[in-house]
UniProtKB/TrEMBL annotation:
Pfam families, sorted: PQ-loop
Transmembrane segments: 16-37, 49-71, 77-95, 144-161
Protein name, UniProt field: Solute carrier family 66 member 2
Alphabetical list of InterPro entries matching this protein: PQ-loop_rpt, SLC66/Scramblase_ANY1
Keywords tagged on the record: Membrane, Repeat, Transmembrane, Transmembrane helix
Places the protein is found: Membrane
Organism: Trichechus manatus latirostris (Florida manatee)
Record-level GO BP terms: phospholipid translocation; retrograde transport, endosome to Golgi
Name of the gene encoding the protein in the UniProt record: SLC66A2
Length: 216
């Protein structure tokens, strides 16, 4: 009787813990990028952060969402991927605006120190140029959005055609996990090139990629 009397307390408490764990799973992955976003916005300097980190996470989470259509996993993991994609797009938007503004300001300072008659506006780079040298360093945020949509469309169409193939679905899940496992590589290469550990803040707390492995 005493145990049954405590059910009114234990059941809501278990539900509350379950909701809290799901919320932490959904939003926990984006928490490390909040101070990074604030730091870039405050200093107006994105040199310490590699936008290829955004590329890796965008690819990994798009692939994870496509994997969900072939093999359903827990809803919090699905929402985690959606929230992470939106977060990476926000990071890309800020980094692009800051980089383009700094490039223009540099041109203006160079103009002030020289005798040129006009300011040369930095050349606009677009993903439609298909220039690998400037890949993922485009001048407009809309270029990143279009590239992500193009990849999502092509990958989604291929997934639609091969959704009944177990081998394809398993390969999709493996690629999602493998891509996310390479998260630290872009930032590591950038820091090695600049001989600095600036920008590593967002990579100290890693998202646990084994969540999707459990689903696999």
């Amino acid at each position: 009787m005493e145990a049954q009397g405590l059910d009114w307390l234990l059941v809501p408490l278990q539900q509350l813990v379950s909701w809290g764990a799901a919320g932490a799973m959904v939003f926990g992955g984006v928490v490390p990028y909040i101070p990074q976003y604030q730091d870039i916005r405050r200093t107006q300097n994105a040199d310490g952060f590699s936008t290829y980190v955004c590329l890796v996470l965008l690819l990994a989470n798009i692939l994870r969402i496509l994997f969900w259509f072939g093999r359903h996993f827990e809803s919090p993991l699905l929402w985690q991927s959606i929230i992470m994609i939106l977060t990476m797009l926000l990071m890309l938007r800020l980094c692009t605006e800051v980089r383009v503004t700094n490039e223009l300001n540099l041109k203006r300072r160079s103009f002030a120190d020289s005798k040129d008659e006009e300011i040369r506006v930095p050349l606009r780079r677009s993903y439609l140029d298909f220039d690998l040298h400037h890949f993922w360093r485009w001048s407009s945020f809309s270029d990143y959005v279009q590239c992500v949509l193009a990849f999502s469309g092509v990958a989604g169409y291929v997934t639609y055609l091969c959704i009944d193939s177990t081998l394809f679905v398993e390969t999709l899940g493996f690629l999602a996990v493998f891509t996310e496992a390479m998260l630290g590589v872009p930032q590591l290469c950038r820091n090695h090139r600049h001989r600095s550990t600036e920008g590593m803040r967002s990579n100290r707390v890693k998202r646990k990629s084994y969540w999707i492995r459990v689903s696999l």
